[in-house]
Amino acid sequence: MSRLRVLGVDPGLTRCGVGIVDVARDRSATLVHVGVVRSDPGEPIERRLARIAAGIRAVIDEFAPSVVAVERVFAQHNRTTVMGTAQASGIALLAAGERGIPAATHTPSEVKAAITGYGAADKRQVQTMVARILRLDELPKPADAADALALALCHAWRGAPAASPATTLTPAQRAWADAERVARR
Amino acid sequence: MSRLRVLGVDPGLTRCGVGIVDVARDRSATLVHVGVVRSDPGEPIERRLARIAAGIRAVIDEFAPSVVAVERVFAQHNRTTVMGTAQASGIALLAAGERGIPAATHTPSEVKAAITGYGAADKRQVQTMVARILRLDELPKPADAADALALALCHAWRGAPAASPATTLTPAQRAWADAERVARR
């Protein structure tokens, strides 16, 4: 069955979430990999970025995603760390570009809306829905890892060609439908 | 004579200035290389960042700087392009880190103060002083290239161990003294 393999990246210098999902044409999704790439805040910035790059490249090389989805960073968010976050997002996009893999960015509210149907959903709601959609026994942790999976799902649902009967549902509705179907099993 | 070779990077997505100077223990400086790494605004972000990375790495590999100095990016500056600038700065720092070269960041006002003695100097003043310090017949162009050279000079002067009689002069005073000495020749 044809499927789209998406690497989602929740960029950060100290913790960079990486999550890979396979999404089928019927929009059902399977967890492939989830993890966090870390760098030591005590190290110089150039070495921290090199560690982040190495960690992301290792995930790309092992799992060969078709596309990389990265959270879009805004200047107005959390000013003390925003530049490090922006630099980490650049590293993730670079890693995709250097492997010839297309990349995309999505805003946090796009991700929340795609996953929960509500653009201002809190982290717990997103984690809960990600766990349901991927049929996980536990919530993915830490939050960075859950956010990375949410990004990957968001990208697949927003970008993938809609297959009937999904055309009649929004991604969020479909997510609920999938989760309910799972819950009924 | 021992000298410090510094690569200065004025980060940008469309134009990324790169300038290399050799700075001697007496703080005199020589131009080694100056240029601009460009990426096409019509290309996807991941490919643009890959081009910037390739351009910076080519300069590092050709000229083997001892240190890389990158302009520090602030969230409040020019919001429409600040995220791309931050990403490009991350790429420059990464390129240093991956080659095992130390990196440093300097604020625009630190650079202006080091080069002209005045933290709020305009671009033309900085370009003029850079040309005098490096004994160039023309102003370095475009402005991104001049800024990259100014960053490299700033780093060398701020970071290099002071040799007598430079200890009695601020970097800016020394720059003027050097420039005047050149003018008297």
UniProtKB/TrEMBL annotation, chains A, B:
Instruction: Look up the domain of life of the source.
Output: Bacteria
Cofactor comment text = Binds 2 Mg(2+) ion per subunit.
Q: What is its main location?
A: cytoplasm
Localization terms from the record: Cytoplasm
Q: Which GO terms describe its biological process?
A: DNA recombination; DNA repair
User: HAMAP family, alphabetically?
Assistant: RuvC (MF_00034)
Q: What is this protein called?
A: Crossover junction endodeoxyribonuclease RuvC
Q: Which organism is it from?
A: Microbacterium ulmi
